[in-house]
């Protein structure tokens, strides 16, 4: 069984907020689909041994695209929530890789990931006991409001971060943390939350601000701009 580094890509969402005619991972971005950018950026990193992608069972788009990647690619069905999609992918990965394999879970909807950010994550965490994730420090002043939008407090932004992906944990630890969250009906919106839920302490690693998650239609233009900048055209 191989260990090393594998990627898991949850791609089973419907992209409701994008309000497009297809899930956002199948939208065109420059010369490729969003999902092709994402997969190729992971696959082209020399340390990534393979990818497991979670696709919705009723997804009619995936069979129509032919994604060429330079590493093994396995496809599983997604689940109702992102964490279920990730868990399905980890079940598959357990048949392919050793328990101590590092898994980088990365959103299909983040096509601008830099090799440099993957490098940062690997070098910061490879010798760590638990693992961690890429994130960005919060720059704005942060307020908490009541349900009717009245400000209740201003929150000290020091030590506040926006979590992004990849999130990198050991296969067996991540799988059992996600299973525990599911069994106890805890909704986790990222892998780190599941790890925290079982009492472990993930590490935050600062990434680049261009690793955006495509969520609404204006994000596509932004992603295109970031790609041009990454090529030195910006
Ligand atoms: N995802 C998944 N399985 C789900 C829900 C989401 O694999 N049941 C994936 C999405 O495909 C995406 C990533 O998780 O790559 C991050 O989720 P998000 O940005 O919320 O995507 P969507 O759920 O598709 O978008 P929306 O919330 O607007 O519907
Ligand atoms: Mg969603």
Description:
This protein is of the alpha/beta class. The protein has a single domain, classed as Spore Coat Polysaccharide Biosynthesis Protein SpsA, Chain A, CATH 3.90.550.10. The chain contains six helices and eleven strands. The protein has helices at residues 34-43, 82-94, 115-125, 171-183, 191-197, 218-230, and strands at 5-11, 28-29, 32-33, 48-55, 73-77, 102-105, 131-137, 142-145, 151-155, 161-170, 203-206. A seven-stranded mixed sheet has the order 5-4-1-6-10-7-11, sandwiched between helices. A hairpin with a 2-residue loop joins strand 2 (28-29) and strand 3. Helix 2 (82-94) crosses helix 4 (171-183) and helix 4 packs across helix 5 (191-197). The radius of gyration is 18 Å and the shape is globular. The mean pLDDT is 96. The chain binds cytidine-5'-triphosphate and magnesium ion (MG). Cytidine-5'-triphosphate binds next to strand 1 and helix 2.
Secondary structure elements and their pairing?
Layout lengths: L4 E7 L16 E2 L2 E2 H10 L4 E8 L17 E5 L4 H13 L7 E4 L9 H11 L5 E7 L4 E4 L5 E5 L5 E10 H13 L7 H7 L5 E4 L11 H13 L4
Parallel strand pairs: 1-4, 1-6, 4-5, 7-11
Antiparallel strand pairs: 2-3, 6-10, 7-10, 8-9
Helix pairs in contact: 2-4, 4-5
Bound molecules: cytidine-5'-triphosphate (CTP) and magnesium ion (MG).
The site of cytidine-5'-triphosphate has 21 residues, from strand 1 and helix 2.
């Amino acid at each position: 069984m191989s260990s090393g580094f594998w990627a898991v890509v949850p791609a089973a969402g419907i992209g409701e907020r994008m309000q497009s005619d297809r899930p956002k991972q199948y939208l065109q971005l420059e010369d490729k689909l969003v999902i092709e950018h994402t997969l190729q950026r992971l696959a082209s990193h020399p340390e990534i041994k393979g990818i497991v992608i979670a696709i919705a069972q009723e997804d009619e788009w995936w069979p129509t695209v032919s994604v060429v990647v330079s590493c093994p690619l396995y496809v599983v069905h997604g689940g109702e929530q992102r964490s279920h999609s990730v868990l399905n992918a980890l079940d598959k990965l357990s048949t392919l890789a050793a328990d101590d394999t590092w898994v980088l879970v990365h959103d299909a909807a983040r096509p601008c990931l830099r090799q440099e950010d993957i490098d940062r994550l690997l070098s910061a965490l490879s010798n760590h006991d638990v693992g961690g994730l890429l994130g960005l420090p919060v720059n704005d002043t942060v307020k908490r409001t009541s349900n009717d939008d009245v400000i209740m407090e201003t929150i000290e932004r020091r030590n506040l971060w926006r979590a992004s992906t990849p999130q990198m944990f050991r296969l067996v630890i991540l799988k059992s943390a996600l299973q525990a969250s599911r069994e106890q009906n805890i909704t986790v919106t990222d892998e780190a939350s599941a790890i925290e839920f079982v009492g472990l302490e993930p590490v935050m690693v600062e990434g680049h601000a261009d690793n955006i998650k495509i969520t609404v239609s204006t994000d596509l233009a932004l992603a295109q701009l970031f790609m041009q900048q990454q090529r030195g055209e910006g």
